[in-house]
Amino acid sequence: MSDEHILVVDDDPRLLRLLQRYLSENGYRVSTALDALAARDVLQRIQPDALVLDVTMPGEDGLSLTNSLRKDGLSLPILLLTARGEPADRIGGLEAGADDYLGKPFEPRELLLRLRAHLRRVVPALPVVDEVPDILRLGELEFDAKRGLLSGPQGAVHLTGGESALLGVLTSQPGTVLSREAIAKALEMDEIGERAVDVQVTRLRRRIEVDPKEPRFLHTVRGKGYVLKPGR
Questions:
Q1: pTM value?
Q2: 204-224 burial, b for 16+ CB within 10 Å, e for fewer?
Q3: Is 163:98 a contact under the CB 8 Å cutoff?
């Protein structure tokens, strides 16, 4: 049994039972909730490692809940489920703060693989050890890639799985212009499209730039892509 805990939120009891059984059979601990209100109650009692969330629910919908949780500082991976399959809807989910989007109907195996991919990107905070972690300097900020931790004068925050993955890709080739296509492939966003990369870049800039509209570190190269220029 894995120590990783998944919270699944959907107003379809049948789907909840199916996913709870399937994820449990694949080694995860699983909690469920039928709507956003119940999900908030669960989140008061446990700290899951990932959230699988339906978009269209009665009351507060999945996009609103995602946006609210991100504003509250929750950085765990969030995977949205929805019958809305249009690219604009997927982009809306990413803009709200989700890490991934899966259209209904879907194969449980695909959900499992996507969850595993996002959970691999999230490394929990570790105790101090003798090994010195790789640190990226961004002005007054420091990014610890091993922990997904961004530290600065205002304190430290754990980046979301998507933010950490994007910064990791850019950090792997500092000073090199990476195309949207290359970034989308590295982040396994091929199906969503290159527009999803722009959304993730916008979110990351809000984390690392003093003025996201006048970026100092993460630059757009018109017609080519993005480049990270770290420094003090």
A1: 0.63
A2: bbebbbeebeebebbeeeeee
A3: no
